Amino acid sequence: GAVVSQHPSWVICKSGTSVKIECRSLDFQATTMFWYRQFPKQSLMLMATSNEGSKATYEQGVEKDKFLINHASLTLSTLTVTSAHPEDSSFYICSAPTSGPSSSYNEQFFGPGTRLTVL
Amino acid sequence: QQPVQSPQAVILREGEDAVINCSSSKALYSVHWYRQKHGEAPVFLMILLKGGEQKGHEKISASFNEKKQQSSLYLTASQLSYSGTYFCGTKAAGNKLTFGGGTRVLVKP
Asked: Are β-strands B54-56 and B43-49 bridged in parallel, bridged antiparallel, or unpaired?
């Protein structure tokens, strides 16, 4: 299957600092990438849709000024958690669908995830 | 709206079979199945498309009833490596993959 990488795999930061997470599609181009958040023993919740060359689309309840998304190229999307607080501690996972005539019919692959701990 | 998965958890002995169900209230274009091990990201297992096409692992089987907007994942002759949490994801109109609550599977020797 297609390969999606994520960096870093884990990060510990102090409250009030900002953290950037990178998501790359290694063997395919992704005009769209998705960012999910997962709390322990819960399902994956979609935070936002990252679109190459345009603004991200955020899900209801997700603060766009706190979770900055940039999709600078067809293989790279970044999520920056600004002024992080302990309640932002979570497992952040990016995902990208393979390209094709209709994204609804495309397989979607996940990166390995980034575990964020805010002290 | 989130698809509904059942059961929430299942315990199997190695070699036994199990079925995991996923249902949606929306008309679906595709159903995606993933398995997640503790501390890791979800791994793609299979996609079932409206119209009958399927793509995925050879050892995994699943069905998609388009009329009922229901899908089932079949774990046959389970192995220890099948343990994990299984998520179904659904795509209705649009691009978003929405996940069910997950089914925890534990396969014991």
From this structure: antiparallel
Residues from chain A contacting residue B50 (CB–CB below 8 Å): 105
User: Do B4 and B100 meet the contact criterion of CB atoms below 8 Å apart?
Assistant: yes
- The count of residues in chain B is 109
Q: What is the pLDDT of residue B5?
A: 97
If you measure CA to CA, which chain B residue comes closest to A43?
B101
**DSSP reduced 3-state for B56:** strand
Taking each continuous run of H as one helix and of E as one strand, the counts in chain B are 0, 11
From chain A, the residues in CB contact with B32 under 8 A are 107-108
Average pLDDT for residues B4-19, to the nearest whole number?
96
Q: Are strands B4-6 and A67-73 parallel, antiparallel or unpaired?
A: unpaired
Burial class of A41 by CB neighbour count within 10 A (0 to 12, 13 to 18, 19+) = exposed
Mean pLDDT for the stretch of residues B37-42: 92
Q: Are strands B9-13 and B103-108 parallel, antiparallel or unpaired?
A: parallel
% helix, strand, coil for chain A, step of 5:
5, 50, 45
Closest chain B residue to A5, measured at CA:
B41
